[in-house]
Amino acid sequence: MKAHILATTAIAFALAGCSTMQEGNVQSASDSSPAAAAVPEATGYFAQPSTLPFHAPDFTKIQDSDYKPAFEQAMAIHSAEIEAIKTNPEAPTFENTIVALETSGQMLNRVATVFFALTGANTNDTLDAVQAEMGPKLSQHSDAITLDPVLFERVKAVYDNRAAMSMTPEDAKLLEETYEQMVHAGALLTPAQKEQVKAINSSLSELTTEFSQKVREATVAGALVVEDPAELAGLSQSEIEAAAKLGVERGLPGKYVIALQNTTQQPLLPDMENRATREKLFMNSVHRADRGGANDTRTLLAEIAELRAKKAALFGQPDWASYVMYDRMAENPKTALDFMQQMVPALAATQRREAGMLNEQIRAEGGDFEVQPWDWYRYAEKVRKAKYDIDENAVKPYFEITSVLENGVFYAANKLYGLSFKKRTDLPVYHPDVTTYTVYDADGSELGIFYFDPYQRPSKRGGAWMSNFVEQSHLYGTKPVIYNVLNIPKAAEGEPQLVSFDNVNTMFHEFGHALHGFFADQKYASLSGTATARDFVEYPSQVNELWATYPEVLRNYAKHYQTGATIPAELIQKIEAAAKFNQGYDFGEVVEAALLDMKWHALTPQQAAAIDTPEEVDAFERQSLEELGLEVDLVPPRYRSSYFNHIFSSPAGYSAGYYSYLWTEMLDRDSRKWFLDNGGLTRANGDHYRKTVLSRGGTMNYFEMFQNFAGRQPDVTPMLEARGLVGNDPTAEPATSDGPLPPETTGDNAD
Ligand SMILES: [Zn+2]
Question: Is the pTM value of this prediction over 0.85?
Answer without folding.
Answer: yes
